[in-house]
Amino acid sequence: MKKTSDKEFKNARLSLTLLFSCIVFLILLVSLGVAVLILYLLTTYAHIPASEDGILHPMPFLLLVSAVSLIVGIFVTFISSTLPLKPINRIINQMNRLAGGDFTVRLSFGRLARSYPALAETINSFNLMAKQLEGTEMLRSDFINDFSHEFKTPIVSIAGFAKLLKEGNLTEEERKEYISIIEEESLRLASMATNVLELTRVESQSILTDVSSYNLSEQIRGCVLLLERKWESKELEMDLDFDEHNILASEELMKQVWINLLDNAIKFCPEKGRVGVKIRREGDGLTVAVSNTGSNISPEDQKKIFNKFYQADKSHATSGNGIGLAIVKRVVSLHQGNVTVQSEPDGVTFSVWLPRKNGSPE
């Protein structure tokens, strides 16, 4: 399929090259024809010096042919070049607008211009690039606003309660409560900063360097215990349905995947709900499904939920910054796996498929 596409692209670019070659040839042909016509008329009316026997003097004739051809060629080239260069000038102008930050710009030509495959490919590629940049810019803008809000809230809380502690005149119970709030908000800030740094790190990573064979089941159980305080405070039922499975992967990176998925499942699960984890063998790999009851993700949000900085919860009723699932997708991709989301009326399930690599033992 890829070879066919490459061949089509080469043929499209070749057709554009032939088009410009034909235009150049046409310009030369028209220039020569006009020059011959002018010389014929001048010769007919005896404006060209000739000898007594009617033979033209070669030097004046050659000079005149050269001069007329040059003048006609320049004129015809100037007139005709505006047509084939018009699309190129428009593309350059739109690219300058795009480079200037106007991501709403799009290329549009008439039916005749779009009939050439190479030009149609250029138009489609440009518009796709502009659309992607526009989407990225919107996400970046939303992230700055959302992330600024997320950072500002705990900072204001820490500063406010620290000021109250400094002023004194507090009961021991109040003092402990304020210290606990400061601790929680500090951990929240640290978590956000860690996620940003982790996303930057995995995005710049192109290969896995710390791959080893380890017990995946034990790793997931450990992540569940790390989040025990969160799911116990909501009185959630944790349903772990899996046997022992080994996998060849980066243990450190995969830990980030399970923590992010479990944390999201706990966060969006209502009190006294259920969070489940299943591991199943599928083909040459393993599928880990993390689910929770009582939540739902719209089809539109499912298409964007793995994008950087995207938050399905626009109300900010739950904490988050739209980075966790982007980390999950990038880490799974580095392991040549895939991650999907399925939303049902009674809950949401995130499924991660990972190759076991080299037949790692069960």
Topology of helices and strands:
Layout: H1 2-44, H2 58-99, H3 111-114, H4 117-167, H5 172-203, E1 211-215, H6 216-226, H7 228-233, E2 237-241, E3 246-250, H8 251-268, E4 274-282, E5 285-293, H9 299-304, H10 324-334, E6 338-344, E7 347-355
Parallel strand pairs: 2-4
Antiparallel strand pairs: 1-3, 4-5, 5-7, 6-7
Helix pairs in contact: 1-2, 1-4, 4-5, 5-10, 6-8, 8-10
Could you explain how this protein is built, in words?
Helices cover about 60% and strands about 15% of the residues. By secondary structure, the protein is of the alpha+beta class. It has three domains: about 1-100, no CATH class; about 140-205, Signal transduction histidine kinase, dimerisation/phosphotransfer (DHp) domain (Helix Hairpins), CATH 1.10.287; about 210-355, Heat Shock Protein 90 (2-Layer Sandwich), CATH 3.30.565. A hairpin with a 2-residue loop joins strand 6 and strand 7. Helix 1 runs antiparallel to helix 2. The protein is elongated and about 115 Å long.
Number of domains: 3
Q: Give a count of the beta strands, DSSP E runs of length 2 or more.
A: 7
CATH topology group of the largest domain: Heat Shock Protein 90
Largest beta sheet, briefly? Answer: 5 strands, mixed
Please state the second-level CATH architecture of the largest domain: 2-Layer Sandwich
Which CATH top level class of the largest domain fits? Alpha Beta
| Sequence of strands across the biggest β-sheet | 2-4-5-7-6
SS element count, helices: 10
Q: How would you spell out the order of helices and strands? A: HHHHHEHHEEHEEHHEE
Helix content: 55-70%
Beta-strand residue fraction:
5-15%
Low-confidence stretches: 358-362
Could you name the CATH homologous superfamily of the largest domain? Histidine kinase-like ATPase, C-terminal domain
For the termini, the CA-CA separation is 36 Å
* Average pLDDT rating: 77
State the shape: elongated
Radius of gyration: 35 Å
Tell me the structural class. Answer: alpha+beta
